[in-house]
Write a structure and sequence with these properties.
Length: about 270
C-alpha cells in the first residue's frame, strides 16, 4: 500500500495539470462521520489517460467529485492548471465554479444523463449556450461537427429514447466535448454497455487522447482494461494502493475478445 503522504506522479517533466494534495473527504451521516478519502496525493499530467480502479465503495466517484468540485472537500486542495489559469477548485464560489467547470472539464456518466426532452443536437448545444463561448449559430454548427465525429449526424434531430445505449453514450461524449475542455472525467462510462459497445466507447476515448491531446480520468471497476490506460491508480478503502498485481491484469484469452471493427473517425 502506498502511504497517504506519498505522491503518485506521471512524467514529471511538465507541471501537473491536476494536482491533488492531502485530499480528505469525510461524509457526515446519521450513523456518524465516514472518511471516504484518507489523504490522496496525485499529480495528473496533460495527455494522460488515467484509469482509476477499485472495488465498489472504494472511493472512486468521490475521487472524481474532488476533481470536478461537485462536492465539497473536507481538507486538502485540488489545483487545476488549464486554459492559462491555476485554479484552486474548492476555493471557487458556486457561480465561478460552474463557469470554470463548463470550460475546463467535460463529464461523462455511466447513465449518459442526456436530457430526454431535447434532441441530440440540442443536448450538445446546451452546454455551449450556457457557457457562452460560441455564438448560437456557431454552437449549432459545432454540435453537428461533434455528432459527425461520433458518427451520429443522421440522428441529430431524434430524442435520446430513440437511439441505443451505446449511441447515447457517444452523444454524451460529444456533449462533454462541446466547450472543447482539456480534461474529460468519466465515471464508469461503459458500465451499462455490452462488451463490443464498451470497446467502441473506449476506442473513442483513446482517440481523444492520442489525436486531440485530451487528458482523461476514467473510473472503472473493470480491471481487465487496466493495461489500456497510460497509467492506473488503484483505490482501496479511500487510499491509493500499489499498482495492480500481475494476476489482476491478466487479459482475456484471445478467443474471448470481441472482434475489432475498423472505425472511421473524422478528426
Ligand atoms: P466508488 O465510486 O468506489 O463505488 P464512492 O466514492 O461512491 O465509491 O463511495 C465511497 C464511500 O463513501 C462508500 O462507502 C459510500 O457509501 C460513501 N459515500 C459516498 N457518497 C456518500 C454520501 N453522499 N454520504 C455518505 N456516504 C457516502
Amino acid at each position: 500500500m502506498t502511504t497517504s503522504h506519498e505522491t503518485l506522479q506521471g512524467n514529471t517533466a511538465t507541471p501537473a495539470l491536476i494536482d491533488m494534495r492531502d485530499v480528505i473527504k469525510v461524509y457526515s451521516t446519521a450513523a456518524g462521520d465516514f472518511t471516504a478519502l484518507k489523504g490522496i496525493n496525485v499529480d495528473i499530467r496533460a495527455g494522460e489517460f488515467l484509469g482509476v480502479i477499485g472495488k465498489s465503495g472504494a472511493g472512486k466517484s468521490t475521487f472524481l467529485n474532488m476533481i470536478t468540485g461537485v462536492d465539497d472537500i473536507t481538507t486538502g486542495r485540488v489545483i487545476i492548471r488549464a486554459n492559462g489559469a491555476d485554479v484552486h477548485v474548492h476555493d471557487l464560489n458556486e457561480d465561478a465554479l460552474a463557469l470554470w467547470r463548463g470550460k475546463t472539464l467535460g463529464v461523462v456518466f455511466q447513465s449518459f444523463q442526456l436530457l430526454p426532452m431535447l434532441t441530440l443536437i440540442e443536448n450538445i448545444t446546451l452546454p455551449m449556450d450556457l457557457c457562452g463561448l460560441y455564438r448560437p449559430r456557431r454552437s449549432r454548427q459545432r454540435a453537428l461537427e461533434l455528432l459527425e465525429m461520433v458518427e451520429l449526424e443522421e440522428h441529430a434531430n431524434k430524442l435520446p429514447a430513440f437511439i441505443s445505449g451505446g449511441q447515447q453514450q457517444r452523444v454524451a461524449i460529444a456533449r462533454a466535448l462541446a466547450n472543447d475542455p482539456p480534461i474529460l472525467v468519466a465515471d464508469e462510462p461503459t458500465g451499462s454497455l455490452d462488451s463490443v459497445t464498451s470497446d467502441h466507447i473506449f476506442e473513442l476515448f483513446e482517440r481523444l487522447v492520442q489525436e486531440q491531446g485530451k487528458t482523461i480520468v476514467m473510473v472503472t471497476h473493470d480491471k481487465s482494461i487496466a493495461p489500456r490506460f497510460s497509467r492506473t491508480l488503484r483505490i482501496v478503502d479511500g487510499e491509493l494502493a500499489d499498482p495492480i498485481e500481475e494476476d489482476e491484469t491478466a487479459s482475456e484469452p484471445e478467443a474471448n475478445k470481441s472482434p475489432k471493427k475498423k472505425r472511421k473517425w473524422l478528426w
